[in-house]
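Lab notebook, entry 252. We have the chain sequence and a SMILES string for zinc ion, and the next step in the workflow is to get a structural model of the bound complex before anyone spends time on docking refinements. Request logged below.

Task: model protein plus zinc ion, output structure tokens.
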Amino acid sequence: MGRLQLPWYGKLKNYKPAKKMIQTLADTPDYLVEVFSVGPLQCNCTLIVHKPTRQATIIDAGGDAEWLLHRLFMVHGVENLVQVWHSHAHFDHFMASEALRQATQTTLHLHKADAPLWDMLPEQCQRYNIPLPEDKTAPPDAWLSEGQPLVFASGVEGVTLPAVGKCLHTPGHTPGSSCVHMPSLNVLVAGDTLFRGSIGRTDLWGGSDKKIEQSVKGRLLKLDAPEDMAVVTGHGQLTTLGFEQRHNILMR
Ligand SMILES: [Zn+2]
Ligand SMILES: [Zn+2]
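Result returned:
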């Protein structure tokens, strides 16, 4: 599971990746965290590499599947894309997910409350006039839930690595919107729940003003974390927890 399927090695060898701005949020002996924007709406995609075991996790594969595969397997020498997590099921955050699953047999993970949205991919694409992905997107493999740890396998029997992060269920932008908090790397992946100085829209399928306020003001901005913790927003400029605690629209 998670290994690049054979035909892809040939394809990727000749692949010329488009230039993208890449932000490195953490680079420790054990982990690398990179963010870049992908897909038709330039969603911020997060790549987490566990260096000692050459495993990776992606959060929000919003598009550019070949670029992602090239980055993982050719640039970083990853051997195993173990999972793809999703902050929510708006189309612009999972357009490349099925292609990654086909190419590597990785597993796709989503909060169950967004399952109906995932199934509405064709309607979502139609509404925004975006062509559907080539491969028909099948349901996720597993459901994310509050507190679920993000953990890599040690590869050694009986040895468990400490979790590098955990899922926070933060509904509002969508019913299943979730963040990934990685305290040891000082990173919070917020999806479309939090933007620099602002919050996600709530006028789409299942959005709720009340819930996003509870999630952001009542939860994310109260995290017991350093002010300089990097926050990966869903699109555009990244931010920090401290900046949002002072300047977020909900704090004015
Ligand atoms: Zn969204
Ligand atoms: Zn989005």
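Notes for the group: The chain has seven helices and 15 strands. Worth checking against the assay data. The CA atoms of residues 12 and 181 lie 32 Å apart.
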